[in-house]
Amino acid sequence: MIKACPKKGQRNMERNHPMTSDPQWDAAAVEQAVAQLSSLRPAYAHIIGFYGPVFVAQARALKRTDPGAIDIDEALLAMKSSQGFSLVEPSAFKVDLPAAEDLLTRICHIAVQSGEKLGSTGEALIRAMGDGEAMDMLLTDVLLERRRIKALAKTMDAPLEMLSLLLYLAVKPSLQAGARQLASRLDGSQKNRGSCPICGSQPIIGELDGDGRQWMHCGWCWHRWPVKRIACLFCSRRERASVEYLYSDDEPEYRVNLCRACKRYLKVVDTRKMDRGFYPPLEQVASLHLDMLAAQKGYSHAVASTISTVE
Ligand SMILES: [Zn+2]
Ligand SMILES: [Zn+2]
Questions:
Q1: pLDDT digit string (tens) for 169-186?
Q2: Is residue 295 part of a domain?
Q3: Which end of the chain has a smaller Cβ tally under 10 Å, C or N?
Q4: In-domain check, residue 18
Q5: What distance in angstroms lies between residue 208's CA and the mean position of ligand 2's atoms?
Q6: Phi, psi at 61, each rounded to 5°
Q7: Closest ligand to the CA of 199
Q8: What's the domain count of the chain?
Q9: Shortest CA distance to 257 belongs to which of 279, 277, 235?
Q10: pLDDT digits over 119-146, tens only?
Q11: Cβ atoms within 10 A of the Cβ of 286, count?
């Protein structure tokens, strides 16, 4: 049962945070996290049945992914970092096309084996690849405007959001590799941002680590950055009265922060209250009931989710 939580005394984390990127996950560790969460959340069998194998395939692909250096002017990079601007636009990322194409094929086969709606899109995409459709242009389009993806969705008679989702999942290791490349270029002025210091996208999920420090995870490149535990990260509210918290005794590791001022919400996972490894994309898709609850209450997420298309 989910209920609103009274304001809790929370430590204000004022200490300096390291500007490290996301911890590295190998495929075996992802597989283990997927198995653990599958047994905890039988209601998510369908969703984890698709995303679980996809996340494992992405972790394997990441090891082979080398998109090359992102083109950016050194002086501009230094200026952006020191002034607290995000370093690049999402369209600046490079895609390792052979690796992304291999992964796309794998993801399409996983989609075919899973849900009906996503399965037919996976099938259509496999057919399009067999017919010689130029996947490299489509994979690049995920970063830019989606004109060609829209055209293909029409030709294939497939839902655009599902086609975009499959393509995005295939380029994600390239985005992660790009974010890792740039993470070392960030300096301390990039702390406490409400958007990703690398690409400027919104956080998709928050994390409290073993020491109670709070981190955000980017919904686009999955960079991880530290933030202080202020009431609302999006409108920078500090008064806790403006924020309502949802939590459940059945899932003590999850909390949803609802900001009454800006009507946005953020899911935060307290890793001190769970026995499994915290793999952010997995926790994100295995807590969609919280997104639905927040939406019912009239709150919206900073990241438009295409995840519900799997259901
Ligand atoms: Zn990002
Ligand atoms: Zn707010």
A1: 999 999 999 999 999 888
A2: yes
A3: N
A4: no
A5: 19
A6: -65, -35
A7: 1
A8: 1
A9: 235
A10: 999 999 999 988 888 888 888 888 887 7
A11: 24
DSSP string across 79-104: HHHHHT--SS-GGG----HHHHHHHH
Residue 199, both tokens: 């690409």
Q: Which ligand is nearest to the CA of 197?
A: 1
- Domain hosting 209: range is 2-9+23-310
* Measured CA distances, 305 to 135, 144, 161, 171, 205 (Å): 24, 18, 10, 17, 12
Strand 300-301 vs strand 264-270: parallel, antiparallel, or unpaired? parallel
Query: In this structure, are residues 309 and 161 in contact, taking their beta carbons and an 8 Å threshold?
Result: yes
CATH number at residue 231: 3.90.1670.10
Cα 182 to middle of ligand 1, angstroms:
10
Ligand 1 centroid from CA 127, angstroms:
32
Q: Are 43 and 212 in contact (CB under 8 A)?
A: no
The two structure tokens encoding residue 105: 């094929």
Give 189's pLDDT tier (boundaries 50, 70, 90).
Answer: low
Is residue 227 included in any domain, yes or no?
A: yes
Q: Report H helices in 72-159.
A: 74-83, 97-113, 116-130, 135-141, 147-156
- Is 137 among the domain residues? yes
| pTM of the model as a whole | 0.88
